[in-house]
Automatic annotation (TrEMBL):
Organism: Halarchaeum grantii
Protein name per UniProt: Uncharacterized protein
One Pfam family named in its UniProt record: DUF7091
Length: 89
C-alpha cells in the first residue's frame, strides 16, 4: 500500500467513525426524548405484566403506583417504564 492509499484509508476510517458516533448520539437522544402515553388525568397507560391487563397508573419518581417490589413481573415493568419501553395502549 502506498502512502496515498494509506491516507485515503485513514480519511475513510475517520469519516466512518464520525458517522458512527453521530448515529449513537441520535439513538440515545431518541430513546430519552420519548414519553409514555398518558390518559386525561395524567396517568401513564401501561399493560400490566402481573395481571395481564390494561391500566392507567400514576408515577411516583418514575415508579408506577401499583409497583410491588416482591413480584418479578413488577421489577421488569419498572425497568421498562424507566427506559420508556413498556407496553402501552
Amino acid at each position: 500500500m502506498t502512502e496515498d492509499d494509506s491516507g485515503v484509508v485513514d480519511r475513510l476510517a475517520r469519516g466512518a467513525g464520525r458517522r458512527y458516533a453521530e448515529a449513537v448520539a441520535a439513538y440515545r437522544e431518541g430513546r430519552t426524548s420519548g414519553e409514555l402515553p398518558r390518559d386525561d388525568a395524567g396517568r401513564v397507560r401501561i399493560v400490566c405484566r402481573r395481571h395481564a391487563e390494561k391500566r392507567a397508573v400514576a408515577l411516583d419518581d418514575g415508579t408506577p403506583a401499583c409497583f410491588d417490589a416482591d413480584h418479578p413481573a413488577c421489577e421488569g415493568c419498572l425497568e421498562d417504564v424507566r427506559d420508556g419501553q413498556v407496553e402501552t395502549w
